[in-house]
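tool=predict chain=A
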Amino acid sequence: MDQPELSIVIPFLNEEQVLPLLRERLVKIRDRPAAWELLFVSDGSTDGSTRFIEAWASEDPSVKLIVLTRNFGHQNAVSAGLSFATGNYVGIMDADLQDEPEVLLEMYRTLTREKADVVYAVRTSRTEPKLKRFFYFVFYRLYLYLADSPVQADSGDFCVMSRRAVRLLLTLPEKLRFVRGLRTWIGLPSRPFPISRPARAAGFPQYSLHKLTKLAFSGLTSFSTRPLRVGFVCGSILCVGAVIGALTYLGIALFTNIHLAAPGFSTLVIVLLFSNGLIFLYLGILGEYIGQMFMEVKARPSFIVERTINLERTQGSDARD
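tool=predict ok
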């Protein structure tokens, strides 16, 4: 079988309502490479999504399916798809049509025209609720400040990459994957592609607030050690403040006739609460790093493949076997 020009990795989780709409959009695309493959990754779907893709794959050999044994998470599902992709160029998009296939083809043409290795989407507008948009804003600004190799604000996994970029991504040994961060870290020539992100075509978001928070912490702690310096900075500030306070009270006692009638109970309580809060904050940050090390040291695979359809190559359970 000839190598496809473009592989598109599409992870999904319980997207039964939106997959027929996605198929309709993909089938209607005419200005596309002559040879392409659609790599759908079922990340533990429990509805009819997997059956829908199986039926589609039986009709079209360019549609391929990777079924994971359980829900390993979006980032690991993306990594599973990348490990099976064989195209000269590889795109990543979500199945909910917030990542539009027509836009992905435009990014593909930009990539081939400009001879870059990565073209990634940058969202100029969003349709999510205001609170969710606020959390996205806070996360990306924190990430830009903390990360040693930060991604561009409001970018995501929606992108097209060269075979060289994919090959380098798959050699990275992390088990806890933050694909957009790893994509930036490898440092290959990349281009932003502004888009207006539409609303979901159907169904409900599968990324809960808990999953988004977990992904945010993973991204912040995977690419920077700056949060670990919070303890040193805060401790230094508290120590300097304590010395200044002690010298102030000593000066009052030695050089003035002011006698403090009240022991300053309220001030003491506030200081204790503040300092203890900082201690627990730092312990939490430290715990995130220790948790990351714990998961990495165990070296379990990022995903396990149960079965595949229309894929000739036998692949191991992890992209980095």
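The domain at 6-210+301-309 is CATH 3.90.550.10 (Spore Coat Polysaccharide Biosynthesis Protein SpsA; Chain A). The chain has two domains: 6-210+301-309, 226-298.
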